[in-house]
Amino acid sequence: MKKKSKIILGVCIVAAVLIGISIWNAWFSATKIAFVNFQTIQQGSISKANDNSFIKLSEVSLANLDRLSNYDMVFVNGMGLRIVEEQRQQIQQAADKGVPVYTSMATNPTNNICNLDSVQQNLIRRYLSNGGKTNYRNMLNYIRKAIDGKTYSTTEMEDPVERPSDMLYHAGISNPDDELEFLTVTDYEKFMKDNNLYKEGARRIIITGQMADATDLIKALEKEGYNVYPVQSMTRFMSFIDEVQPDAVINMAHGRMGDRMVDYLKTKNILLFAPLTINSLVDEWENDPLGMSGGFMSQSIVTPEIDGAIRPFALFAQYEDKEGLRHSYAIPERLKTFVSTINNYLNLKTKPNKDKKVAIYYYKGPGQNALTAAGMEVVPSLYNLLLRMKQEGYNVSGLPANAQELAKMIQAQGAVFNSYAEGAFDEFMKNGNPELITKEQYESWVKESLRPEKYAEVVAADGEFPGNYMVTSDGCLGVARLQFGNIVLMPQNAAGSGDNSFQVVHGTNAAPPHTYIASYLWMQHGFKADALIHFGTHGSLEFTPKKQVALCSNDWPDRLVGTVPHFYLYSIGNVGEGMMAKRRSYATLQSYLTPPFLESSVRGIYRELMEKIKIYNNSAKENKEQESLAIKALTVKMGIHRDLGLDSITNKPYTEDEIARIENFAEELATEKITGQLYTMGVPYEPERITSSVYAMATEPIAYSLLALDKQRGKATNAINKHRSLFTQQYLNPARQLVEKLITNPAQATDELICRTAGVSPEELAKAREIETSRNAPKGMMAMMMAAAAKNKTGDKTGKTADKMPEAMKKKMKEMGAHMDSSKAMEMAKKMGADPEALKKMEAKMNASKGDKPEADKAKGMSDMMAAMGKKTAQKEYSKEEINFALALTEVVRTIRNVGNYQTELTASPEKELASLVNALNGGYTAPSPGGDPIANPNTLPTGRNMYAINAEATPSESAWEKGVALAKQTIKTYQRRHNDSIPRKVSYTLWSGEFIETGGATIAQVLYMLGVEPVRDAFGRVSDLKLIPSAELGRPRIDVVVQTSGQLRDIAASRLFLINRAVEMAAAAKDDKYENLVAASVVEAEKTLTEKGVSPKDAREMAAFRVFGGANGMYGTGIQEMVESGDRWEDESEIAATYLNNMGAYYGSEKNWEAFRKYAFEAALTRTDVVVQPRQSNTWGALSLDHVYEFMGGMNLAVRNVTGKDPDAYLSDYRNRNHMRMQEVKEAVGVESRTTILNPAYIKEKMKGGSSSAAEFAETVTNTYGWNVMKPAAIDKELWDNIYNVYVKDEYNLNVKEFFETQSPAALEEMTAIMLESARKGLWKASAEQVAELAKLHTETVNKYRPSCSGFVCDNAKLREYIASKSDAPAAAQYKENISKIREAKVSGDAKGMVMKKEEINRTPEEQKTTLSNIAVGATVVVVILALVLFVRKRRKTSE
């Protein structure tokens, strides 16, 4: 009985416990609420409003959706929710299990999962859409009581409080958690005055945007003495800004503010700051090498730049509360810096120019080499800026009388030296008047600007202060500079260590040396600059380590710029690298013109050849063989066969197709656009160069568009496609004549002229305009929103016009989509431009759900609204033929109408550049503009504006996809022509930022199409997904790819690299029945290669599909240029290839493995590569004139050759003419460029109008020729070197080139002759003994007469110097060696005899160094033995005496 009682008691206790637990769970336990994909700011606000300890909030990541069943309520933000079907099912399963799920703003209808009833959904929608502390608190209590059914610890709930969508706000004074709201500026200012926050006459700052909690920023600005106006406005922002009349606007950006805002900023000349909100915890962000990427980067950085926003400074980041929920607050350390930055910019408005201090950094070659900037004659440009500043009242005392004197001063006091030039250091430190920095000064600045761990990196890399560069005997550090009153000119020092190790050590980030850091810290703290200018494209600051964008306090550019306003003069033609300057060094870009453009003027050289071809084309069949042989003889004589890869067998006629290639090549030479005299800032082009540049901008668009119209009308024959000369005669020349007339009288550009030119009726012209308007109408949801924002305007109660849908479309849409009631949703859809049919369906569904149906059905009406907005507006459907006709005709219209504008803007740009920079130095706004080649995109004019880029998430654009597909097909066709109709197995692509921005991602489109994958666009026009092109539709095997990215492209488009990686994986896994899958085969071979090299099977399987590679440690180049150009430090090309594979072997295909270096991965990826492709989108450079082409394309070519044992085909994707894009073999491109530039007397004469920068441009082209010769010997033949020798050494055109170089830059002549001699020494150029002797004579004469320059080729190649001396007569050689020695060797301080303190160490291979050490040891032993014998003999003699 006792036992039974115990059992009963036990059962009762268990039952009681279970009942207790059940009661607890039912009425007393905590309500657990999960948030999925919510913005931190909203989630944080909800958390702050929660004062109920029985309500627990959690953030659930997309990776943990399987945990949703453990919650009592789930909120899902559907806006931009990117989930796969498995994740979608996890949400649905939670809903099916009875977990209440509420999804808001589902842009994808399949994500719209909601199981609440209509009452619940309506209330929650209203709580969320109105927001605010009270509504959020009531919502949470409502969920606990009404949805979770818990009665314990709940308060009385209030209905949602309707909050105004347009207001000013402020935290409470006594309780900062209070949210104070003000409907008018008057009410807000009364509040400020009542609470002693208003300062009469103080500057006013508007803060807007909802990405973070601005409370601390507001407080900090108020503490600095500003009147701060925080504005949250859906429809009246422009009204508020008109009333406040701010001195600056701070936008916590997530999208654009719009064109009306840009117009306002221009009119009022005030600055727009866009500090960044980091979407991660502070520690995570600081350790993240990307900083920011993807859609968040596009909305936070890219689109605000279109508004002209500046200073993308990371200010806000996430912090976790005790529940693990995140909030976005200002980072205290960075808040202080940001406020100081605002002060410094606004102080430029009020500080007198005479008191402003400005530091100007320039870039120059080492020693006596010229100052350089892309396309610019630097010293005269710099001098013109200084003169303008003097006119504007700046203190520029001591400025010399002319640019020539300034150049001399810079060479004497503002030079830079490579580490080997110790004698030059010695002289400079004595006579160059450097700024001397003591250890105490330096360390005080370091303490102020750098974290201890950052400075520890410097010491680890460069030793303790002052290091070993630019130092004095008493331990000071010298900083080169010229000071004119309050303006200081400073050279950009080398950002690296200058050692001889070319291979990058993975996982390290080399800190800049003390001299580099000291220069910027002196600028900030010693000189106390009010503004910083980097003069010309480009320096090195923006390429120092580490984070790509959204820099933190551990990133060098962030620290070295500090709080100083920064302006960067940047070539309009280089928008890609300009984005690095803008985003990584916080620069406001000030664009400047490229050199002018002109035709090559070589037609006369090829006239005889063209005449023979004309005779051939018109001759009878029986005479063609004889005519072909005549053409061949002349072709071979002129060397054209080498450029085109044709044979030179004299008795074998060329085929008709081969002669057509020769004809087209000669015609291309005749019509090629070349650059003229380097641009001098402030000086308009010569009148004839304005005209020739307008021809370059306008002639081809008209000609190709007229050809397109004729093709559609059946008027153009096939001969036009085959014979480029016919196109010139029938289209290009008439277009040129038309442009000439329009230049003379732009008023002739009427519709009547357009119709006559195009051969169309006024009705056809009107229809083309109608089609163009229809095509440009907003499409997709985001486009609709932006269109509504631009078009829908209404009057507010003050009578002023305000945007009906301003920037709030981007910022507040998230609170309006699914959260609004049906009537509001319908109204919104109409404003978005939804088509009538979609609206009818939407209304029907909403009406159907008004009864007692579950609110989940009614919620579909919200999705229908989203879908309706995403559909095309009602518009007439046009055929492809009609669209193409309209495109061609509107191109004619646009060009004809703008000829006069091109002329005006080219003329006005030089003055606008100076005026814009002066305005920026006065704290004014710099208007935004696109960037790129002005010939290809005239919208880049006028210059003097702040360049912006494109939204990477929308790439490849639709037009880029079409271009990419066409060029990929051309690549295959070109390869087939050269290789017996076989197709390439793998194609290597180089991705560059400039091409990406200017073409909209056409090279990425080529990559995708090669793989047989195409982009999928979402409702916002973004490419966030991919799909396989069916094998049968593709019509060929899937071709594998390998991609190398520049650091610049990596930084602006990381998400596209992930897209490529996904495409490779999809293509490799595709089950193609019709054709062989070359991607899958390549993955198998790569895996085999990796396992053979000792990689584990598991790792090999993972690495086998790696296809996206780039610079190690986040670097921006390949790191091999210095090695290539240091010919005494390598003997075999395999050494360069190994360095390239090491330096470019970091993987960038996924966020998880970002920047990972896996040994052999890059090498394995290159197996089977048959073609190397490089983009070329700009008329301002070519394969020879730009060093990065041989660096990237040549480097990849060399690496492939060493991996596969086969020299790959090398093609350029030529995007320069948007109407005639094509693939061109690199050997042919080199032939075109060399014949039209460095070997063309017309080009040489144009460049010789310039000064030292122009001379340096010749030297750079010769350097790049050498680089190509190393990387791809087949691209550079002996005859090209012979021609360079004849033009620049023998002066075969009688242009007095030697006098030009001696007058403008002897250093350039030293460089060119040294390079040619190095090419001969290494056997790259089979120069004759006479050529070598003549070169050695010219080189030593120049060095002896003008002193060594002292570049690496001239002063730092011991084997070359020995070679030159051996080819020179003895006296000249002796003097030459002495002059080099003076530069290289420092003298002992205070030694009257001038004894050498440190002899040079000839650069040797490790084996040579080992041999040298052995020889020294043997020599020393012999000396010791001899000395011992002498002593022994003397001792014996003494003994015998």
What percent strand? 5-15%
Q: Give the N-to-C terminal Cα separation.
A: 134 Å
Mean pLDDT: 88
Oligomer status: single chain
Strands of the widest sheet, in order across it, are 34-33-32-31-28-35-36-37
How large is the radius of gyration? 35 Å
The helix-and-strand class reads alpha/beta
Annotation, overall tally of beta strands: 37
**Which range best describes the helical content: under 10%, 10-25%, 25-40%, 40-55%, 55-70% or over 70%?**
40-55%
What labels would you give this structure?
single chain; 1441 residues; alpha/beta; eight-stranded mixed β-sheet; six-stranded mixed β-sheet; 58 helices; 51% helix
Short account of what is shown:
The chain has 1441 residues and is of the alpha/beta class.
Structure description:
With 1441 residues, the chain is α/β, with parallel strands linked by helices. The strands form 10 sheets. The chain has an 8-stranded mixed beta sheet, sandwiched between helices. α9 links the parallel β9 (248-251) and β10 (271-273).
Which SSEs are present, and which pair or pack?
Blueprint: H1 2-28, E1 31-36, H2 40-49, E2 55-59, E3 73-77, H3 85-96, E4 101-104, H4 118-130, H5 133-147, E5 166-171, E6 179-182, H6 185-194, E7 204-208, H7 215-223, E8 227-233, H8 237-244, E9 248-251, H9 259-268, E10 271-273, E11 276-281, H10 282-286, H11 294-306, E12 314-320, E13 326-330, H12 332-350, E14 358-362, H13 378-391, H14 403-413, H15 422-431, E15 435-437, H16 439-449, H17 452-462, E16 477-479, E17 482-484, E18 487-491, H18 514-526, E19 531-535, H19 556-561, E20 566-571, H20 575-584, E21 588-592, E22 597-599, H21 607-618, H22 624-638, H23 640-644, H24 656-671, E23 673-675, H25 687-712, H26 718-722, H27 724-744, H28 751-758, H29 762-776, H30 780-791, E24 793-795, E25 801-803, H31 808-811, H32 822-831, H33 836-848, H34 855-870, H35 880-921, E26 928-930, E27 946-948, H36 958-978, E28 986-991, H37 993-999, H38 1002-1011, E29 1013-1017, E30 1023-1028, H39 1031-1034, E31 1040-1045, H40 1047-1052, H41 1054-1069, H42 1078-1092, H43 1097-1103, E32 1108-1110, H44 1121-1124, H45 1133-1143, E33 1146-1147, E34 1156-1157, H46 1161-1165, ...
